[in-house]
TrEMBL record:
Pfam families: TetR_N (PF00440). InterPro entries: Homeodomain-like_sf, HTH-type_TetR-like_transc_reg, HTH_TetR, Tet_transcr_reg_TetR-rel_C_sf. Residues 4-64 form the HTH tetR-type domain. This is HTH tetR-type domain-containing protein. The keyword Nucleus does not apply. Keywords: DNA-binding, Transcription, Transcription regulation. Residues 27-46 bind DNA. It comes from the Bacteria.
Length: 190
């Protein structure tokens, strides 16, 4: 009788190897060995290495919380939740974002995963748009506002991964959000 295949183990092994070695350095043989399955199983189920990596990254990125939250009435509370959830996601999947940003330009077959990244950014933008429409944030492009909130956090993480800083260690999240609101909050008639 065939053994039940644990797709989560396959995805976990795939993402880990992809982060360690990039697209070219990741082999289906190593993924199969780490996941405890036969390499043929991977090709039957996913068709190709690119198909497997796309499925694994899609599954991983669809489970992040910072892009899924529903906006409330308190802009500061929502921003704190977005930032905390982003940091939680980064701690769990830090190497994935960095590897994707480095690998997608070199490997066109990975471009299919970019909608998963955009979906999370668009989720943050929806929350910010709600606060813009109620006057709690300045008007403007909500995606740009989302990038302004998330990008500095990503850069801090990337710098740590490259050995150029401490990353998010010691980050005062409340101060970070207050600073963001100073530039993006409503005009107070100064």
């Amino acid at each position: 009788m065939p053994r039940n295949v644990d797709v989560s183990e396959i995805y976990s092994a795939t993402v880990a190897l992809f982060c360690e070695r990039g697209f070219s350095g990741t082999t289906t043989k190593e993924i199969a060995d780490r996941a405890g399955v036969n390499e043929v199983t991977l090709f039957r189920r996913f068709g190709s290495k690119a198909g497997l990596i796309e499925a694994a990254i899609g599954d991983t990125l669809s489970d992040v919380s910072f892009g899924k939250m529903l906006p409330g009435e308190d802009v500061q509370a929502d921003l704190l939740e977005i930032v905390r959830n982003y940091l939680k996601t980064y701690r769990k999947h830090s190497g994935l974002a960095l590897t994707l940003f480095a690998q997608v330009p070199q490997h066109p077959e990975l471009r299919a995963v970019t909608p998963f990244l955009l979906k999370n950014l668009q989720g943050v933008a929806r929350t910010l748009a709600k606060h813009q429409s109620s006057g709690r944030l300045k008007p403007g492009d909500p995606v740009s506002f989302a990038v302004a909130l998330i990008a500095p956090l990503a850069v801090m993480g990337f710098m740590k991964e490259m050995g150029l800083g401490t990353g998010h260690e010691g980050l005062d999240v409340e101060n970070y959000v207050q600073t963001y609101l100073q530039g993006h909050g409503p005009d107070t008639g100064r």
